[in-house]
Amino acid sequence: MLLCAVLACVGLGCGARAGAAAKSPPPDPLEYGDAVVEGHRILAEDPSGSGRVVEVLGDLDGAEHVAVVVPGAGQTRDNFRANPAEPGTVPLANGRALYAAMRDRASMRETAVVVWLGYLPPQGHSLELAGIVGARRGADALVRFTREVLPADAHVTLTCHSYGTAVCGLAAAHANVADDVVALACPGMGVTDGAAIRARVWTTRAPDDWIRWVPSVRAGPVGLGADPMDPGFGAVRFDPGDISGHTQYYRPGSAALAATSAIAVGERAAVASAGPKPR
């Protein structure tokens, strides 16, 4: 979807339509609270549009390490907890997999995961997939969330997938947002290089992930910026192991999830020393 939208924009020219999207009003800011609904600890929920949900796993207030899972395009309030057609994209399932891996790795430390669908990702084959407007709006909302809701003294890692990596890159270009950013299957982080991001940047991509064909370009509101897999970007690249395609990055037992969980609990040295395998 994203590849088709970017190529369509490059071939047809869609700056005007991207500009029109920028003029559409953003959603109202989420009102954060703390409620338990049918066994789920919900920090915010809004059914309007494709819907927004923010759910926490673990003791957020007492956490030493907090990971914020930021999903990508196509995610909605309706598929936040289940999507039989694409189980690897389900935000809550991915958050649970990361939380379990973090607890296994750091059983003596308090950890928490926030599954943050606090923005309205592009849907379907919309040309918004190739535009930066939605990512900027998501980034503004993510900055507010990390500063106002997360514990001030926690180690914060943004773990982001696909279009969500642009949201995270733009958000982490601001101070006091995150300590680490993990970009999984990134089409572009919304910035020109890693120096613009005020956090350590980590990235990986499956060798057969179609996202590698997305042009790493940015022209006005079109394109999602530089690819952190480019050695010149300045990110730490780590090996994804044996995962395949675009949606297996949170697969339990995978090298990609193990590395992401290690970063999220502050065990960066083990990941940095592993490095990507030649392909």
Automatic annotation (TrEMBL):
The keyword Cell cycle does not apply. GO terms for molecular function: hydrolase activity. Keywords: Hydrolase, Signal. Residues 46-217 form the DUF1023 domain. Residues 1-20 form the signal peptide. InterPro entries: AB_hydrolase_fold, DUF1023. Pfam families: Abhydrolase_8. This is Alpha/beta hydrolase.
